[in-house]
Amino acid sequence: MRVGVLTGGGDCPGLNAVIRAAVRKGVQQYSYEFVGFRDGWRGPLEGDTVPLDIPAVRGTLPRGGTILGSSRTNPLKVDGGIRRIKENLAKEEVDALIAIGGEDTLGVAARLADEYGISCVGVPKTIDNDLSATDYTFGFDTAVNIATEAIDRLHTTAESHMRVLVVEVMGRHAGWIALHSGLAGGANAILIPEQRFDLDEVCKWVESRFKVRYAPIVVVAEGAMPKDGQMILKDESKDSFGHVRLSGVGEWLAKQIEARTGKEARTTVLGHVQRGGTPSAFDRWLATRFGLHAIEAVKDGDWGKMVALRGTDIVRVPLTEATAKLKTVSPEEYKEAGVFFG
Amino acid sequence: MRVGVLTGGGDCPGLNAVIRAAVRKGVQQYSYEFVGFRDGWRGPLEGDTVPLDIPAVRGTLPRGGTILGSSRTNPLKVDGGIRRIKENLAKEEVDALIAIGGEDTLGVAARLADEYGISCVGVPKTIDNDLSATDYTFGFDTAVNIATEAIDRLHTTAESHMRVLVVEVMGRHAGWIALHSGLAGGANAILIPEQRFDLDEVCKWVESRFKVRYAPIVVVAEGAMPKDGQMILKDESKDSFGHVRLSGVGEWLAKQIEARTGKEARTTVLGHVQRGGTPSAFDRWLATRFGLHAIEAVKDGDWGKMVALRGTDIVRVPLTEATAKLKTVSPEEYKEAGVFFG
Amino acid sequence: MRVGVLTGGGDCPGLNAVIRAAVRKGVQQYSYEFVGFRDGWRGPLEGDTVPLDIPAVRGTLPRGGTILGSSRTNPLKVDGGIRRIKENLAKEEVDALIAIGGEDTLGVAARLADEYGISCVGVPKTIDNDLSATDYTFGFDTAVNIATEAIDRLHTTAESHMRVLVVEVMGRHAGWIALHSGLAGGANAILIPEQRFDLDEVCKWVESRFKVRYAPIVVVAEGAMPKDGQMILKDESKDSFGHVRLSGVGEWLAKQIEARTGKEARTTVLGHVQRGGTPSAFDRWLATRFGLHAIEAVKDGDWGKMVALRGTDIVRVPLTEATAKLKTVSPEEYKEAGVFFG
Amino acid sequence: MRVGVLTGGGDCPGLNAVIRAAVRKGVQQYSYEFVGFRDGWRGPLEGDTVPLDIPAVRGTLPRGGTILGSSRTNPLKVDGGIRRIKENLAKEEVDALIAIGGEDTLGVAARLADEYGISCVGVPKTIDNDLSATDYTFGFDTAVNIATEAIDRLHTTAESHMRVLVVEVMGRHAGWIALHSGLAGGANAILIPEQRFDLDEVCKWVESRFKVRYAPIVVVAEGAMPKDGQMILKDESKDSFGHVRLSGVGEWLAKQIEARTGKEARTTVLGHVQRGGTPSAFDRWLATRFGLHAIEAVKDGDWGKMVALRGTDIVRVPLTEATAKLKTVSPEEYKEAGVFFG
């Protein structure tokens, strides 16, 4: 058995841990051979490969990023894309393909498996934690830890100067990073894409915090939007999956708060530091187990499936189901956090 | 409604987060009053209290330990213990008691609730993660992160000197910390209390690692024991719950490995650093949610119950059920990790 | 002897350590009394004080920010400012004043001591490390560690996507944080305010990095400027010392690099996280020693002096001398780093 | 010019940063060639080499340990050792040798340079910071940060249980790590090898801490000894430089404190975690500059010299002078810290 592996979409701490675990188990337990495809779907599309064996994955467990490279290439949008992938898989004598990625990468894998008979197994990856069918995705815990540590640091600056500090974290469509880091960091307001925020209410929370002689921290997901629909988003570009890149809500919010409350406000946009660097222990554990179970799925010939976390168990779910619906913060979960606002 | 709160057993990152969340929600949402009992069950036993309100819990979210103090006092072993607790609860006009603790502390709470009609709600706490009925307990993730970071550091020393490094982590009866930190840290052997280890096999793993010019890390839980039953444990003392304190397996193991393989071996005993200091983001989030849901249980008058994590949900389970059985690493989970040994 | 203490200017990890050490030594060794003035020079100007004794400073060593608050109030710009300060010091029966701050705060202290006979001792504080007369100021090491950790994280994202990552760090007039974190983080270009950069050269470095299949990290101080004098700075506001707030070089640079090299480029602005949170061990040690030696200066009646680090010794220098000249990165030091560019 | 590089003695965060900087500067600026010798003096003694060029050092800056390996081999104790080293250097066409190490490694380099005409340049390395002639050695700052973080964590456990926590840190002959981490961590007693401690006094400090309802942390260097000369050291082994390995003062001290004060006491021995893992920003900066300046010394043919830190400058000093005298904590520096005891 010869297994191809690729990683697609934005990088995420834990990708190397998945690859390493799959290779270790495949080689040692089942004597599989492996080949790495470079830069997501671009690899099988263009036949761009790297050798993948146990020496190649040594020492990669604590390293962020992906040794295979990544891209947002969508082969379904490329003329003859499917045919070229099939040819290159055949040329490399690949019997099974493990695709590690988010909604987009796995969506392609689902179609290749279901419509074109390619033996694909998926491993879910999204730093935003917004894939349904799995309790958590790796990378998310690392991002939340980094954001929480930043909020911890910002508290002392806020208190020293009695300023409002707005922290913009990742999360275009789902507020998981904002919700978890906001709760863990003791934020006085958490704003998420799932629920439009009311500027008056935010300002009320800000002011009530100052009344007890403390300074407020406002955590805002990059995709959060104000209630009155005021246009704050700059359309920068679209990728090949048609996703728009947004930016600017944190900066905008600080200015609005300053104008309305008369308090100094500053913004910190955490940006890329949230997705880089060494994975947390949880993410290394989860990614490692995903890699091990992906090999089990390959061994079982269980194509078109994705590994997923349910409680403390790793299970398999259909790729189509997994990518069908975005997992967002429910109104109940958001309301639960509300007791800490203000 | 006046709610008493106590924390019992070994300290654990996240205890303050539970207390803070309970007080915030109780005061703001339901206008409850709170009173803190000092040092676990010693507090209600001796009527030793501290004021507990919102200002008292401010700034405690990121702080390890417990602002209420802790002890291993077992009131069931004290003459007239139950009576004295009832009297002190009455004197303090306490309508409900939230007990935060492990098997021992919650075992007392279960009996007080079920046999003596005291309105108790439990919050599970064990750094060892060995309570059944909950997927995770807070403190565990912090301990695993600390142990993993230590293992990361020890790898470079092991490689530089081509030495065996034995890391002894917490876990008397359950190997969860060893299993998770060993997997996350890339250990070459993980030894847990659930399964007696074979010294010959450990030495074989050690030697196979040196063959590829790498140096091995052996992670051993403090309660792990060798197969041949050789007595390695020093009985130091017993606490009031009759638990024996053990020590020494790491040191002993390094000597055995050195003697059998001829390779230099060193031991690091992580000890108390695993349970102190600021909680990880996950533990702050979990502890906070436990605190919020404990108040909901109080509001519902759902006595004799414990909050627990199932997947991403907080549920309630009977205290008796929760403390009935130790949650240990299953043979399957241990075997899954075995692919990385050697 | 009754000693007043104030902290002025931007907050900085280590301020509390100075205060704590001064109070501990003053109270225990010399039986001094202390009083804290709130928010820098606003405190003595308006007679706004807080009690300051050993219990007040307990537990503050690891905490960032300042328990006394801070501001950029300049009493020399306030009508009758000096008179009001003298009156309030007399009212509080303050015999000596310890002013902890940067160029501005210490500049006021120097004039109060030299021209108005107020018994002032200074402790230097600047996260930018740009005060002459001291080898290092506390806060700087913490900021460099935070920036370095961020650069470590960004490397993996840059490699995974083969992108340019621009990291904007603090440093309006001096490039110390950029130089040290850039060297420590393995940056491929470091741009500082002391030397105007050449965009063509920066792009050459960027391209040469991609040629060896690695992705470049560009570290840029917020005050760095391009050679051709292109206006990139947004004048946001001026504080009472007349300092202009700048912003935007990182964002601008990424766009220029993208346009000129055709490579994707992203910016991360570290911002306030660099100055908040728990101080590094070095900063706690340095700040503690500054506090201890400030009390020695008070005991010696050595007014108009500032404590300073020379090698591993704490010495005293005249406040006027200390604040006369900005300490900037020399051309030799910058050239030394150049071997790593590209 | 062909330059040999070796690393000797205990591993230390920053070794790879020295090697990388030397290679980068040597290759790019002067077109030098490099060869690595394995495992300290064993490399040139046995002619055991590894290729050393820019690709070999890529990515090593943040990595602890040494890519060249290390050992405590003393070639002066080996029959014909000098002759064999000369032969192997000639065989490898090595024109200059950069020896990175502590007292022992540099002592050999000094004799090779001064007595046998071998073109040696030294780079000082000791995690204990006990080399005279340099303000700091790299690795020390990392060790102090790790020890301080551990002390931070132990405070919360000590407080929660009102226990004494004894932390044993590195330092056989010099108390620098104990002094700096003890000051930075807010220890209530710091015991160093330079000054025998009085158990009665230590117990007095411990008890005075409990009186204010806080729990004490005692930091003890592994080489600290009690006043009454009670034998506490276990002679484990001697290395080829005749150094005895000691152990046990922390454990012993906790038992003594428990027996004398009646308070529960626990010990944490930090051990090898202090010397492994990624270097702090300061150590990366210092090690990098040492590497750059070692190449300058090579270029100048300044044999028998060692690079050293003086204030913020890198200077050169004779190797003989540098290794002649141990740098220990002076009575004044120790006394300065005493204000925090108790």
From TrEMBL, chains A, B, C, D:
Family annotation (InterPro entries): ATP_PFK (IPR022953), ATP_PFK_prok-type (IPR012003), Phosphofructokinase_CS (IPR015912), Phosphofructokinase_dom (IPR000023), Phosphofructokinase_III (IPR012829), PKF_sf (IPR035966)
Residues reported in the UniProt entry to bind Mg(2+): E103
The protein's required cofactors: Mg(2+)
Pathway annotation: Carbohydrate degradation; glycolysis; D-glyceraldehyde 3-phosphate and glycerone phosphate from D-glucose: step 3/4
Binding-site residues for diphosphate, renumbered to this chain: G10
Class of the enzyme per the UniProt entry, highest EC level: transferase
Residues of the active site: D128
Site annotation Important for catalytic activity: residues: K125
Subunit (UniProt): Homodimer or homotetramer.
Name of the protein this chain belongs to: Pyrophosphate--fructose 6-phosphate 1-phosphotransferase
Protein encoded by which gene: pfp
